[in-house]
Design a protein that fits this description.
The complex is a heterodimer. By secondary structure, chain A is of the alpha/beta class. Chain A is 46% helix and 22% strand. Chain A folds into 2 domains: 139 residues, Rossmann fold, CATH 3.40.50; 169 residues, 2-Layer Sandwich (Heat Shock Protein 90). Chain B contains 4 helices and 5 strands. Chain B has a 5-stranded parallel sheet with strand order 2-1-3-4-5, sandwiched between helices. At the A-B interface, helix 5 and helix 6 of A face helix 1 of B.
Chain lengths: 395, 129
């Protein structure tokens, strides 16, 4: 059965003309059926006589599905090419062409991501076999990625539909409660107040769920700008200041100089709001919340420390999982959705960073979020191509 | 006191509005879709229209508001929205696109509803004098 045709671009990098001609002749007519996913692959061969020439083409935006790479090249070696591709985050499925199978080169090439080897001189059948294996790998992994992406979309659509459907009944309930509130006898008012508080919690849950799935699905509209990270930190401290003051919790931001990075301001706000609201919520009365922001090289670090109830190592370990709330006698009076921190971690990873916690039961917790620039700085003016760590998870 | 028409496809939203506004002495009529809503408006000539944005379609309410204006009705329109950041939509008072007099975000606090209705009706009387 012949499936959907896909033409894969194959770059051959080598300075031996007979080899290049042979590859071209063989691949032009070659077809591979990946029947599991109903795809028939054909090949479009291009060649380069040196590693430099190939890398230049890649830097210029050329994209290849498959790379046949001679280890021995006139200028930089095949291993250099692989290293360079790896560093630029532009890895291509690679078949290394080698003249003697030394264990050492094989190991190094594999470490750099080479998928397979062809030993010179090779027969047309050996070439076809290697290309078929690589094609299977390529097509199947793309299909797997597509399915994962599709699953995320389904989840996002499901949750956003659900969220919107839930809003109408919540509104109706709240309307009636507010009418009851107007002339209910005073002894019943606390029940209505609690109902309204729980209703509000439910609404927050829905919004957080939408945020989380939106981040996951990559459907978030992100707009990056050069941000002084202290600004959203101040805004969040301000937002929770009243609640903190009620319980005599002191809040401080330790950062005297501007800490600039390329980020979506709304996302930074999400990070600070979440961490600082937690730091107040789970603190003891009269405690402290200390926020720091700093930048060292590529990495911006945000820390939020509290002097609250803290956690055991077991509790800390599962804290960033969706819907996990630490349940014990210290937390049972505190409302939360169990979504905030998993969202923060996903967000941090979108920025090529992470979110972690160090905590001691009864002493307090220190949350650390690391972030890298979402896009290069010049991209703000529109002349940079977004790439790098921030886009890894989206691609 | 005034005659008020509420157009909303959620019967509980209509009912809650009715309870609150009848206490104030208003007469309430209701419809659950734009066609019935427009018919009720032409037949009963209410003093105020309270309108939900989203009914069968996401912009039903907006379309009805435009139809009402196009047909020359000048009564004040109060629009209820549950449009918030989760929708990624931002509706504002733009007379061209959204020819309404006031917006209230759902759920509506009864006191706010009474207040807005009072203000809109007062504005109407003022205009007539």
């Amino acid at each position: 059965m012949r499936g959907l045709k896909q033409t894969l671009t194959v770059a051959t990098v080598g300075d031996e003309k007979p080899l290049r001609l042979a590859v071209r002749r063989i691949l032009r007519k070659y077809r591979v059926d990946v029947s599991e996913v109903g795809v028939t692959a054909a090949y479009h061969p291009t060649h380069f006589t040196s590693g430099e020439q190939f890398l230049e083409s890649v830097a210029g935006g050329a994209d290849f599905d498959l790379l046949l790479l001679d280890l021995e090249l006139p200028g930089i070696s095949g291993l250099d090419v692989l290293t360079e591709l790896d560093q630029r985050n532009r890895s291509v499925l690679t078949i290394m062409i080698i003249s003697s199978a030394t264990f050492e080169t094989a190991v190094r090439a594999t470490k750099l991501g080479a998928f397979d080897f062809l030993l010179k001189p090779f027969s047309p059948e050996e070439l076809r076999h290697a290309v078929r294996k690589a094609t299977d790998q390529l097509v199947m992994s793309r299909e797997a990625r597509r399915l994962t992406e599709e699953q995320r979309q389904v989840r996002f659509n499901f949750i956003s539909t659900l969220a919107h459907e839930l809003k109408a009944p919540l509104n109706a309930i709240e309307n009636y409660l507010r009418i009851l509130q107007m002339d209910e006898p005073p002894e019943r008012l606390p029940m209505i107040d609690r109902s309204l508080i729980r209703l509000d919690g439910m609404r927050k849950l829905i919004l957080e769920l939408l945020d989380l799935t939106r981040i996951e699905s990559g459907q978030m509209q992100r707009s990056f700008a050069l941000v002084d990270v202290r600004t959203p930190a101040w805004a969040a401290i301000d937002l929770f200041a009243a609640g903190a003051a009620d319980r005599e919790i002191a809040m401080a931001l330790r950062a005297t100089d501007p800490v600039e990075m390329m980020a979506d301001p709304a996302e930074l706000e999400m990070v600070f709001n979440n961490l600082i609201s937690n730091a107040v919520k789970y603190n003891r009365d009269g405690g402290d919340v200390t926020v720091t922001v700093s930048r060292e090289g590529d990495i911006v670090t945000i820390t939020v420390a509290d002097t609250g109830i803290g956690m055991t190592p077991e509790e800390s370990a599962k804290l960033f999982t969706e819907f996990v709330r630490i349940k014990n006698k210290d937390t049972d009076k505190i409302l939360g959705t169990g979504l905030g921190l998993s969202t923060i971690r996903k967000l941090a990873r979108l920025y090529g960073g992470d979110a972690t916690v160090q905590s001691e039961k009864g002493v307090g917790s220190l949350f650390t979020v690391t972030l890298r620039d979402a896009v290069p700085r010049e991209a703000a003016q529109g002349d940079g191509v977004p790439h790098g760590a921030a886009n890894d998870e989206l691609s | 006191m005034a005659k008020i028409l509420i157009v909303d496809d959620d019967p509980d939203m209509v009912e809650a509005g009715r309870i609150v506004l009848e206490r104030e002495g208003h007469t309430i009529e209701s419809a659950s879709n734009t066609v019935d809503g427009f018919r009720a408006l032409e037949e009963n000539h209410p003093d105020l229209l309270i309108l939900d944005v989203m009914m069968e379609e996401v912009d039903d309410g907006l379309l009805l508001a435009r139809q009402v204006r196009r047909e020359g009705h000048k009564l004040p329109i109060l629009m209820l929205t549950s449009v918030n950041r989760a929708m990624g939509l931002n509706i504002d008072k733009d007379q061209e696109i959204v020819p309404v007099d006031e917006f209230v975000e759902k759920p509506v606090d009864p006191a706010t509803l009474v207040e807005k209705v009072r203000a809109l009706l007062a504005g109407r009387e003022g205009a007539q004098c």
